[in-house]
Automatic annotation (TrEMBL):
GO MF, one example: anthocyanidin 3-O-glucosyltransferase activity
Organism this protein belongs to: Linum tenue
Pfam families according to UniProt: UDPGT
Stated name of the protein: anthocyanidin 3-O-glucosyltransferase
CDD domains: GT1_Gtf-like
UniProt keyword annotation of Iron-sulfur present: no
Length: 367
């Protein structure tokens, strides 16, 4: 794993060739390789300052220049950057890097990291836990209620809002989302969770009463078209035929799940490398619509200290759910890439072939 590169020394002592599994995409891998090279050459500026400028960075794993305001949160936090740089430097010592992506999705990014001087890169994804579509026993009742509601909605009509295991909103931001959903007029399923008092470092909790955090009368006014829930069975929801759009925090697993099920994304990144994922899907690949790509949780602040307006959210949802024009064509493209993701894992597919090359390389290096 990425943060276990120190174990490479132990493997070498035991005669075990070091390989690294990289759970993020090839784009973030290329981004970190570039940052580490710039750092070691003394050419990396203060990223925390750059994020507040109109500057751009040329990143080999991206086709378009990256505006610095979209730098991923994890590299503008000074306590994290040295660790990431050190780990990335160690990556270069590996015999190979196994990446959770597939060739048809990240063709350009994979080409950028598959160059002389870098270890061989093996895209073997999408690696998804499809069994997670089924709930644990204690979640069975909530799961059944959500799926029954989705069963009653027309195909492709529901926008699903879910922000990962760490995503949450306090009253002020929840009010803006609620206003946007009412004005957009689309059917919706919204996973709304309460921020931890520890901020981004704490695990979100559940609201006991959504009326306490949502505008007065919202639940009554939208009872025929929407549903607000706490925990969400994300994989099962994305796989349901009624879901036509996914407003997401842009974690890499969520991005791969959306591709697998052919559901276009409304990009609202929050932390880690999510801003980079969002930029790639919106600008480079054209698979997603922007909600707010420069959003980031403030360090240690409950609800981040930033606000996305109802107007921004409404506009993003309308574009995301559009059936015609450019946004409609994006929907078709995502469906096509969804088919590619499944073929990649079949015999003769790109990821299956890459896995075979990886296994052969391990055998050759051990012998």
């Amino acid at each position: 794993m990425l943060c276990c590169t120190a174990m490479m020394d132990l493997g070498s002592e035991l005669g075990v060739p070091p390989y690294v599994f990289y759970p993020s995409g090839a784009n973030f891998l290329g981004f970190m390789l570039e940052l580490q090279a710039l750092h070691d050459e003394g050419k990396l500026g203060d990223l925390a300052e750059l994020k507040d400028t109109e500057s751009e960075m040329a990143i080999p794993s991206l086709e378009k220049p990256l505006p610095c305001k979209f730098l991923p949160s994890v590299v503008v936090e000074k306590e994290w950057l040295p660790l990431l740089i050190d780990n990335t430097r160690r990556l270069r010592e590996a015999r190979g890097i196994v990446v959770n992506t597939f060739l048809e999705l990240e063709t350009y990014a994979l080409g950028s990291v598959s160059v002389a001087g870098n270890p061989p890169v093996y895209p073997v994804g999408p690696l998804l836990n499809l069994n997670s579509a089924r709930p644990e026993e204690e979640e069975e009742e909530e799961y059944k209620e959500v799926m029954e509601w989705l069963d009653g909605q027309p195909a492709g009509s529901v926008v699903f809002l879910c922000f990962g295991s760490m995503g949450s909103f306090a009253k002020e931001q929840a009010t803006e989302i609620a206003a946007a959903l009412e004005r957009a007029g689309h059917r919706f399923l919204w996973s709304l969770r309460r921020p931890s008092e520890m901020g981004i470092t704490g695990v979100p909790g559940e609201y006991e009463n959504f009326d306490d955090v949502l505008p007065g009368g919202f639940l009554d006014r939208t009872s025929g078209v929407g549903k607000v829930i706490g925990w969400a069975p994300q994989m099962a929801v994305l796989g349901h035929q009624s879901v036509g759009g996914f407003v997401s925090h842009c974690g890499w697993n969520s991005m791969l799940e959306s591709v697998w099920f052919g559901v276009p994304i409304g990009a609202w990144p929050m932390y880690a490398e999510q801003q980079l994922n969002a930029f790639q899907f919106v600008e480079d690949l054209g698979f997603a619509e922007e909600i707010r790509m420069d959003y980031r949780w403030g360090s240690g602040k409950i609800d981040g200290g930033m606000m996305v307006t109802a107007e921004e959210i409404e506009g993003g949802i309308r574009r995301l759910m559009a059936a015609e024009n450019d946004e409609g064509r994006k929907r078709k493209t995502v469906k096509e890439v969804s088919e590619m993701s499944k073929k990649a894992l079949t015999e003769g597919g790109s990821s299956c072939s890459s896995l075979s090359r990886f296994i052969q390389d391990v055998i050759d290096n051990i012998s």
